[in-house]
Design goal:
Helix content: 25-40%
Largest sheet: 5 strands, antiparallel
Strand content: 15-25%
Number of domains: 1
CATH superfamily: Histidine kinase-like ATPase, C-terminal domain
Oligomer: single chain
Shape: globular
Distance between the termini: 17 Å
Strand order of the largest sheet: 3-4-5-7-6
Number of helices: 4
Length: 179
């Protein structure tokens, strides 16, 4: 599953400490960033083209059950049953996280296209401190803390960004748009 955040694209080579040359040498990359620094950067997450239309659903401070019901009312469109069910679980997890860990209001929006469903869940908080949140399951065997990881496993595409309104996650099920 893909993830991105808001801001300019990273420089070429920032994810690799060295470059391999044609002659077999490995040269240091001046642009290299440690994984934690790279993940903390804000990078652009352009809106999905179906987000140019008004959302089919817009809820403020919904319960997880209300968000799931709204997704079911919107319908699964072309998605296979298992992919739609995974998307519903992801929406439920993200809404629950917003209510539990974010700052009010929690905003849920949903769009449906011919080949995908897109949902955004945002709150007025700053989002997770852990740069690996959602990318790895939580360590230490503690109960809970798997909502974002489940979301990344359940959706075709997950992006997140921070702006003046707070922290927002965008979930996509189905075929992400071609860019």
């Amino acid at each position: 599953m893909a993830t991105s955040t808001a801001g300019p694209p990273p420089p070429s080579g920032c994810t690799h400490p060295c470059f391999a040359t044609a002659g077999g040498r490995h040269l240091p990359s001046a642009d290299y960033l440690a994984p934690e620094a790279f993940l903390r950067q804000d990078r652009a997450a352009p809106p999905d083209p179906i987000q140019t239309a008004p959302p089919l659903v817009e809820l403020t401070d919904p319960t997880a059950a209300q968000a799931r019901a709204a997704v079911h009312r919107a319908g699964q469109g072309p998605l296979p049953d298992d992919e739609f069910d995974d998307f519903v679980v992801a929406v439920s997890e993200v809404v629950t996280n917003g209510l539990r860990h974010g700052r009010p209001p929690v905003r849920f929006r949903l769009w449906a296209g011919t080949d995908r469903i897109v949902a955004t869940v945002g709150d007025a908080g700053a989002g997770p401190d852990d740069p690996y949140a959602g990318l790895l399951p939580t360590a230490g065997g503690r109960p809970g803390g798997l909502g974002l990881w489940i979301t990344h496993q359940s959706c075709n595409h997950v992006t997140h960004y921070r702006d003046a309104d707070g922290f927002t996650l965008r979930l996509t099920a189905g075929r992400p748009p071609l860019r």
